């Protein structure tokens, strides 16, 4: 678990949902209040278990819930959870797995995680969740409404996640991180982790990112591209050096977008 911070004065009724964002290297988490805002004192991350097998991930998520209950001093039983998976998700069943165990493929993740966590859960693609947070309330919104036109969110992390919206409507499970570019899977060359693993300079990474983004723009001509993931916090180091027709902006919620989008989805489970 990440280091804990002092909990704010929240009552159980003020917590509306939990967001859990599964990635290849970490599971980010946090609680949202009834206004839909992330309670910053509850935002953190735990290390993804080696191999990211579904059962092991479920146990880590159960521990996160116990730790959050201790942190807040509240009984979080019954609080709905939105959970992201880096793969295609249809009706709670996972149909692909990126940077996690292949045992996820074909798994009814809703059944597994609702049982392990003992609560209602909503399962969705990780980039779709981040995209919903940004398009409905973040960098893709204006005056509380989605910006009209086509918007692409790309999360650069262990892999590359993608979410596509037209006039605020999500087209789910768009896997633009797996485009083939110059004979390679795009995320094997342009994901943020590659910069660390190959010790690339910013200039070298920008060259790769430009090649990837140019291909994305050629294929779907978005009006707006939002760059998310932890790397978006360093946006001033690379975004101004990229040349695209589309407007290019950093995510408002950075690495917390997936948690926020997942929690918002969970808030509507009973509606």
Automatic annotation (TrEMBL):
Name of the coding gene: ppgK
GO molecular function, a single term: polyphosphate-glucose phosphotransferase activity
Lineage: Bacteria, Bacillati, Actinomycetota, Actinomycetes, Micrococcales
Family under the similarity heading: Belongs to the ROK (NagC/XylR) family.
InterPro entries linked: ATPase_NBD, ROK
EC number of the protein: 2.7.1.63
UniProt KW NAD keyword: no
Protein name as annotated: Polyphosphate--glucose phosphotransferase
Presence of the UniProt keyword DNA repair in the record: no
Gene3D superfamilies: 3.30.420.40
């Amino acid at each position: 678990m990440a280091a804990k911070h002092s909990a704010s004065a929240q009552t159980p009724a003020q917590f509306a949902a939990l967001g859990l964002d599964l990635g290849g290297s970490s599971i980010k988490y946090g609680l949202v209040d009834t206004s839909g805002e992330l309670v910053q004192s509850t935002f953190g991350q735990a290390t993804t278990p080696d191999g990211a097998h579904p059962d092991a991930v479920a146990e880590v998520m159960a521990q996160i819930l116990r730790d959050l209950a201790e942190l807040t001093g509240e009984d979080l039983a019954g609080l709905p959870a939105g959970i992201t998976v880096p793969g295609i998700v249809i009706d709670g069943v996972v149909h692909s797995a990126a940077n996690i165990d292949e045992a996820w493929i074909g798994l009814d993740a809703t059944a597994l995680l609702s049982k392990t966590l003992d609560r209602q859960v909503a399962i969705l693609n990780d980039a779709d969740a981040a995209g919903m947070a940004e398009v409905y309330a973040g960098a893709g919104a204006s005056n509380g409404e989605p910006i009209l036109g086509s918007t692409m969110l790309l999360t650069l992390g262990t892999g590359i996640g993608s979410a596509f919206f037209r006039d605020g409507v999500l087209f789910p499970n768009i896997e633009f991180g797996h485009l083939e570019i110059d004979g390679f899977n795009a995320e094997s060359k342009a994901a943020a982790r590659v910069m660390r693993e190959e010790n690339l300079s910013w200039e070298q990474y920008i060259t790769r990112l430009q090649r990837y983004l140019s291909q994305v723009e050629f294929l779907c001509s978005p009006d707006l591209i939002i760059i998310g993931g932890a790397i978006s916090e360093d946006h001033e180091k690379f975004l101004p050096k990229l040349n695209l027709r589309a407007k290019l902006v950093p995510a408002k919620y950075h690495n917390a977008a997936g948690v926020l989008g997942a929690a918002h989805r969970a808030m509507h489970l009973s509606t």
